[in-house]
Amino acid sequence: MSAEATNPVSEAGATGPDAPGRRRGRPRIDLRRLGRAALLGATAGPAVRDRLPDAIGHVAEAHRAHHPDADLAVLRRAYVLAESSHRGQFRKSGEPYITHPLAVTLILAELGAETTTLTASLLHDTVEDTEVTLDQVRQEFGDEVAYLVDGVTKLEKVDYGAAAEPETFRKMLVATGNDVRVMSIKLADRLHNMRTLGVMRPEKQARIAKVTRDVLIPLAERLGVQALKTELEDLVFAILHPEEYEATRAVIAGNPGAADALAAIAEQVSAVLREAGIGAEVLVRPRHFVSVHRVRLKRGELRGSDFGRLLVLVAEDADCYAVLGELHTCFTPVISEFKDFIAAPKFNLYQSLHTAVAAPDGAVAEVLIRTHRMHKVAEAGVVALGNPAGGQEAGECVEDGERADPTRPGWLSRLLDWQQSAPDPDTFWTSLRADLAQDQEITVFRTDGGVPGTISLPAGATCVDAAYAQHGEAAHGCLGARINGRLTPLGSELQDGDTVELLLAQDATSGPSPQWLDHARTPAARIAITGWLEAHPEAAKAPAAAPRPPAAVTADRRSGARLRVELPGPEGVAPPAVRPAGCCTPVPPDEITGFVVRGGSVTVHRTGCASVETMKRLGRVPVTVHWGDTAACRVTLVAESFGRPRLLADLTEAIATEGAAVVSATVEPPSEQRVRHTYTLQLPDAARLPSLMKAMRDVPGVYDVSRARHQAAPEG
Known about the structure:
Blueprint: E1 10-11, H1 31-43, H2 46-49, H3 57-66, H4 73-86, H5 99-111, H6 115-122, H7 126-129, H8 134-141, H9 143-152, H10 157-160, H11 164-178, H12 181-195, H13 202-222, H14 226-240, H15 242-253, H16 258-275, E2 281-286, H17 289-299, E3 308-314, H18 317-330, E4 332-333, E5 339-340, E6 353-358, E7 364-371, H19 372-380, H20 392-395, H21 410-419, H22 425-436, E8 441-446, E9 454-458, H23 463-471, E10 478-483, E11 486-488, E12 499-504, H24 516-519, H25 523-535, H26 537-540, E13 553-555, E14 562-566, E15 578-580, E16 592-596, E17 602-606, H27 610-617, E18 622-627, E19 633-642, H28 647-657, E20 661-667, E21 674-683, H29 689-697, E22 702-707
Parallel strand pairs: 3-7, 8-12, 15-17
Antiparallel strand pairs: 1-2, 2-3, 4-6, 5-6, 6-7, 8-9, 10-11, 10-12, 13-14, 14-18, 16-17, 16-18, 19-21, 19-22, 20-21
Helix pairs in contact: 3-5, 4-6, 5-6, 5-12, 6-9, 8-9, 9-11, 9-12, 11-21, 12-13, 12-14, 13-14, 14-15, 15-17, 21-25
């Protein structure tokens, strides 16, 4: 089964010996014929029953193609139990029900699944839909098979109601955390159900297709099972976007010579590689419907070479780069299309070199270069890796230094962690879809020497996400973060390879602000923050806005302080706008004076500000300005200090102790072991400013705290 096409793969210009285990276009099985074979197997005489039933002969053939020494006796026993227990049951399409587990098993066999997985797939509906119990399965086939069957068994709607579907997926994902083969069976099960969805009502088709799109397809992508993912995408595309699907089908049907265009380029590539002495297979890979649709949206009108890709298969990793060198030497490379997923594999096990080359006639062909083993994993993902416990079959895929499948990939570990905190099925279901929508992953490095030394996060994650991924609920007290040594806001987005240091408060009562939800990208962070805010409703309340001043009073939006200006003029004329000057940021109870500037507004300065003398020299007449009756104010302070560990945390704690709220904070890069911190603070009472500045000066390492002063040109 192709990762890029449901059509048979066409081949052109193969060079070198055939790949081990290579299969040459086995035709797709007729499920109705499979159903008749199942019935014949059920009614045949004893002599026939002693043989492997004809109904699973195709499964056995596909299985032996990947595992020549496999013991098929257990498959026969599993088939006999499945057929006898499902006997008399029929699918909505009218076929005997046994055709469904047979089809699911055949899908997995084609992908190279080992015997235990195939045994469980034959039995995957017996516990759910028949009188067979899980204990019977365990007694007959062992704990492994019983675990896999239990993992894919749905929860009853009678017991769970509307929560049955999300809770079933939660159960499957938890089981997948211990054995990824559970999800392999579920994906194959959903693929066969999607293939036969036409007998359902349109509204039920749409509902199942949406769950497939939002949950199953992303899971197939993350587990690297591209062969299942691409066919699922096409089936969902046809149901949810029928008009676009038909338009894409018409475009493909209207270009019957597309394969010839790629075949011609494949012949040229094969000739180049033969001349270079590189043994390789060069195959033409037709794009599947969704891929053609995406390319069409990106490029507009398509050329023949846009309907597929070239796949070059070689024996060793080094050969991949040798092929790349020959292609870039003998053809014109499209540099923007080059990606190296061998040196930096995708988080879903995928490895390949991607490039694109232009033929002499101007046709551009995309090329994928990989080893045969990379190709097996690219097609089948975790299915090709066999037993996650590390049996012989699994080991076959990780020899020669090729990348092994971790039993618990980073994304799966994160998912299993946050699902435990999801308080209800709706939160879990919504969070799961949001989590799976993140289809890229980054790795950042820790500085605390913890194990592991890295944190895996979805692309777009911020310091908030890193804090909760590393510290759990202790991240409620996070005060700030350093990315690559520079202090940054908690909302800063992380990039792959960044080093992040998270600064935590020692105060156990510290908690996140509601604004953190704007920066949280991972469900773990969002669930934890939401839970804390719900438990501390007083912390979630936004500070009350300053009351609207009377006509003769103007409020400064930045400081919250109220000012009254006295200007001579006729009665009934509204007073001018008044704002504090940025150069000296006056707050109560500073002595202040004002000047009328261009536009008729009044800027207010502290009387000792250097700008006051400048304005007077320019002939500006001072205006009398008074503070109003509002005590609250906003002020900007600069703390000069010697650099040391925990300085930021101690300064923040001193500010909080004085009852001030941090509106914003910046830290300049250290210079000669000296650090400058600039804070914009909201004070409930301006009279507390002197004690606040003293408390900050008392922090060890701080040698000066002053009001912010900015050089400003005289205002006109």
